[in-house]
DNA sequence: CCCACACGCGAGAGCGCTCTCACCTCCCCC
DNA sequence: GGGGGAGGTGAGAGCGCTCTCGCGTGTGGG
């Protein structure tokens, strides 16, 4: 079983095809500058021997790995409660695969891991990194920049010193929030509340900002800080109903919180959307379509976001490319109207 | 930016410490057989120079990569609708990290990718593979076995020729289903229905089998085939109510389907659990806790499953270990009682 | 006091590949 | 018909590391 079959080397292929190693190498790497009959002979030898290049040997000399690290910080919280990162990974994977790059996944758990990740990235195992760091005070972005490896961030990172050149991809959290709130206003609602996410995350902060853009003059009691979870949404909704029993609309910072709010509203006998209209954020399908009534929410194209991150990184990695990547890309969101508002 | 700082080599460290390359190598790899003062000198030189071993060079000679591939087949369907794989990945990642192994993620999309994955695995980039393949007729397991690389499967794979030696880790789907159905029976329910998952997946087939173990004599009309989605759960529930309006309990093959069933029951004015008791499977938190009433369901420890898969693989990879890993590990499930049954 | 042996350390080969450079052919043009 | 060039091919060095082997030093026993 552990019988490692002696894999054929370039040398072996060369011998079989009756050419030099250099020629085989040329053929294997695209075949420019080799005459057709030889190409054919080499191809056949490769085929017959089942030759596969040794990546380690190749990397040793080229100093390329055709591999990209994806760093996901602090998965304990939000990450694994929803398909967000899975979708993102899928987008990233597709793009990387299309360009023959591998995806090395680095999940970090707490501060201890930071050093490990930094060391790995600095260790030259990968050509670049895609980093998801949700928290404003996360030291990881700084560490990674120190590693001196091309990096693209997922989500707007918190601002640190010397962050001007940071490349990131984010959804238009602020614009999406504005659209959600305007939709509620357009329904004639006048007492629109906002259940926020954890405000140490840029996405939550940006959504709150969007809410304020439209309802800057709102009663401060209509804004309740929460945590992106159903339980948190429930608590926030109860608080809201206690503070302002006349509330007639809620914009929750994500679908999970909205689902909690919905449950409290029903429990308290408020009809949705007749008495209170509810809008979520994310369009996390199993949740948004699973609530009763189904949730009106703001959709972000997560998979596309992943794809663009990968594309941006690959562009920076490509030595041939004209090197002027945008610093940040903000993807549009769309309002998905279902039954709750 | 692309200014690749010339990374220090073993040679450089050796020169600085005034020893030979061999000695530095020994120290870096554990330091056995090197006297303390020298170890100290080398350590300092490493520190000062910020030396990090070149993994490519090392792999070239050791033929080890300290990297494991995680292959997830057909992510289009179930995979990305729920946190299942994310949790699994987390478990895997933790275990691999603890043993200084890297995780290379391979997501496949349709048949074309199979060849790519097989080539990659056969290409000797990784030491082993963890493979998730849900479908009975998936050709991937066969291809991978052909690649001759140590592999552990997640979930019981469908049976192919020569599968005796397959190592896999799975939840006790059958036992969990039995427990769910017995719980319903213990509640005094006599007309217990089952909404299945897609029966070409072993997990769904095993859950059905568990149902049959307890209710082998049930009216066949009480079993409706479905697809693990909320929409599918809705359709199945409607069908069920049409066939047997007197149904008083439903065991849905997963939480998503259960959430759909719940919605139909409410819509049709059946009280849960009074009129109809409902049990799900998975304990997918955002769903199970997000339904109304909250879902009684069968929990599987997904993260642990990932961890065990990784552990099993690492054990097979470890040349020093006494080599007798179990062929299959089946993890217990537990019934989580909430409001729906 | 000398020999045997173990242990610590260095020299050097070689892992499989790419890439430069020199050579050799063949063709075109004067 | 000969010289120059372009393009195709091979030889060989070297990427950074590990590992075997042999030598030198220190220790214990006869």
Automatic annotation (TrEMBL), chains A, B:
Residues 8-62 form the HTH lacI-type domain. Keywords: DNA-binding, Transcription, Transcription regulation. CDD domains: HTH_LacI, PBP1_LacI_sugar_binding-like. The keyword ATP-binding does not apply. Pfam families: LacI, Peripla_BP_3. SUPFAM superfamilies: lambda repressor-like DNA-binding domains, Periplasmic binding protein-like I. InterPro entries: HTH_LacI, LacI/GalR-like_sensor, Lambda_DNA-bd_dom_sf, Peripla_BP_I. SMART domains: HTH_LACI. GO terms for molecular function: DNA-binding transcription factor activity; transcription cis-regulatory region binding. This is LacI family transcriptional regulator.
């Amino acid at each position: 079983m552990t019988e490692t079959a002696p894999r054929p080397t370039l040398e072996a292929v060369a011998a079989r095809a009756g050419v030099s190693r250099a020629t085989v190498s040329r053929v294997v790497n695209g075949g420019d500058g080799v005459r057709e009959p030889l190409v054919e002979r080499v191809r056949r030898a490769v085929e017959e021997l089942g030759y596969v290049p040794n990546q380690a040997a190749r990397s040793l000399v080229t100093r390329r790995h055709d591999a990209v690290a994806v760093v996901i910080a602090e998965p304990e919280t939000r990450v694994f409660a929803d398909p967000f990162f899975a979708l993102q990974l899928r987008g990233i994977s597709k793009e990387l695969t299309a360009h023959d790059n591998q995806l090395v996944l680095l999940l970090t758990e707490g501060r201890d891991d930071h050093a490990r990740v930094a060391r790995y990235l600095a260790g030259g195992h990968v050509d670049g990194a895609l980093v998801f760091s949700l928290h404003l005070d996360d030291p990881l972005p700084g560490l990674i920049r120190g590693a001196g490896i091309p990096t693209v961030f997922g989500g707007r990172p918190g601002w640190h010193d010397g962050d001007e050149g940071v490349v990131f991809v984010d959804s238009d959290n602020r614009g999406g929030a504005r659209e959600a709130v305007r939709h509620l206003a357009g329904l004639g609602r006048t007492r629109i509340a906002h259940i926020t996410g954890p405000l140490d995350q840029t996405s939550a902060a940006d959504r709150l900002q969007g809410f304020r853009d439209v309802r800057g003059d709102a009663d401060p009691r209509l804004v309740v800080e929460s945590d992106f979870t159903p339980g948190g949404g429930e608590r926030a909704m109860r608080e809201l109903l206690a503070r302002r029993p006349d509330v007639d609309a809620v914009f929750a910072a994500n679908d999970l919180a909205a689902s909690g709010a919905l449950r409290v509203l029903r429990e308290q006998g408020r009809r949705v959307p007749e008495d209170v209209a509810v809008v979520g954020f994310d369009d996390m399908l199993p949740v948004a379509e699973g609530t009763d009534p189904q949730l009106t929410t703001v959709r972000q194209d997560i998979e596309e976001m992943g794809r663009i991150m990968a594309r941006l990184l690959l562009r920076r990695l490509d030595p041939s490319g004209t090197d002027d990547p945008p610093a940040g890309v903000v993807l549009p969101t769309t309002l998905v109207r279902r039954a709750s508002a």
